[in-house]
């Protein structure tokens, strides 16, 4: 994983946009429309997993429309935890999309709901799932330094 | 219910009424079906939002909160782990390289210990001390153990630690050190 520092407000603004869209998926319920939007969200998470949170379209929205209106950040953040969070989002939404594609449409709002919790906690409270889980994963030996 | 109501009307009216009822019942049922399905989703979202908010408030309240020490296994050899304890009290901070909360906590604790004699701050990376992390029951970064001069844990905090929380933890250290913590204010 390549290292580097990013503006920590970027992933949080991105998570705000993401949680609103995931809330819409929950509202769409067990429908094809919900499946389509969840698939779109999954692809966004795929982009974030491959390129980092700053490389998503939400990151682009932040850089283009939000950051110019803000002062410089108090401090920068390592880009790896937000990228890890994108991977978690990819995993959760992919389960919903795959099950939904096989006709189990109830999985669509459920997966969106789970992803919503993580995204909203990040956006509103600054909870970083990657940071919370890192040590647990290290302790269990699932992740190496 | 419907039959008892319609039963009072003449057959002609009853016929019209029953058609009307059946008709509204049908279309109303379809509309109601959509509304109630949407309602279910709206309720699901409201529950989800409230649950998330509760979780977030709980998580925020825990950040840096001074907690009682865990049952520290006896005879932790801090020195052999490369952690030199200060004379009276040491903040032993477990951090991860990528953890932003660890950096701000480190700044707070570093600032606090700078002016106080006998108070130390040692920051270690969890990756270098996985054994210690396991035996001390450290689950997340940053976790700060407040260790007295004898190597005994007197309090612990996890998550971002604020200046006032760190001072509060210092006050947990008995006797002279506690008074010292008060005097610093």
From TrEMBL, chain A:
Q: Which UniProt keywords apply?
A: Membrane, Transmembrane, Transmembrane helix
Transmembrane ranges, per UniProt, are 20-47, 88-108, 114-137
Lineage top rank: taxon: Bacteria
Record flagged with keyword Hydrolase: no
Claim: Transmembrane is one of the keywords in the record:
yes
Ranges for domain DUF4395 = 6-139
Tell me what this protein is called. Membrane protein
UniProtKB/TrEMBL annotation, chain B:
**What keywords would UniProt list here?**
Membrane, Transmembrane, Transmembrane helix
Q: Which domain of life is it from?
A: Bacteria
Q: Which InterPro entries match?
A: Thioredoxin-like_sf
Instruction: Please give the start and end residues of each transmembrane region.
Output: 42-61
For this entry, the protein name equals Thioredoxin
Q: What is the lineage of its organism?
A: Bacteria, Bacillati, Actinomycetota, Actinomycetes, Micrococcales
């Amino acid at each position: 994983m390549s290292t580097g520092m990013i503006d920590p407000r970027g992933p949080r603004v991105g998570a705000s946009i993401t949680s609103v869209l995931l809330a819409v998926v929950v509202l769409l319920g067990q429908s094809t429309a919900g499946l389509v939007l969840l698939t779109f969200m999954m692809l966004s998470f795929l982009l974030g997993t491959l390129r980092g949170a700053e490389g998503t379209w939400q990151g682009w929205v932040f850089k283009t429309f939000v950051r110019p209106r803000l002062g410089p950040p108090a401090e920068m953040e390592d880009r790896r935890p937000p990228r890890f969070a994108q991977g978690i989002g990819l995993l959760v939404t992919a389960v919903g999309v795959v099950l939904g594609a096989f006709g189990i449409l109830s999985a669509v709002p459920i997966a969106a709901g789970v992803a919503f919790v993580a995204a909203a906690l990040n956006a509103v409270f600054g909870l970083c799932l990657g940071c919370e889980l890192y040590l647990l994963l290290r302790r269990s030996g699932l992740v190496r330094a | 219910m419907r039959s008892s109501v319609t039963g009072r009307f003449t057959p002609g009216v009853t016929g019209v009424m029953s058609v009307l009822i059946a008709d509204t019942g049908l279309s109303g049922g379809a509309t109601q079906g959509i509304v109630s399905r949407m309602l279910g989703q709206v309720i699901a979202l409201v529950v989800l939002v409230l649950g998330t908010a509760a979780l977030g408030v709980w998580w925020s309240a825990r950040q840096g909160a001074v907690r009682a020490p865990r049952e520290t296994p006896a005879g932790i050899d801090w020195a052999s782990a490369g952690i030199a304890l200060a004379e009276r009290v040491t903040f032993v901070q477990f951090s991860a390289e990528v953890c932003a909360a660890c950096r701000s906590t480190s700044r707070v604790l570093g600032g606090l210990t700078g002016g106080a004699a006998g108070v130390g701050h040692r920051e270690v990376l969890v990756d270098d001390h996985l054994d210690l992390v396991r035996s001390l029951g450290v689950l997340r970064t940053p976790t700060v153990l407040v260790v007295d001069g004898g190597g005994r844990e007197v309090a612990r905090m996890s998550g971002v630690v604020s200046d006032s929380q760190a001072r509060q933890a210092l006050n947990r250290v008995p006797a002279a050190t506690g008074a010292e913590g008060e005097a610093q204010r």
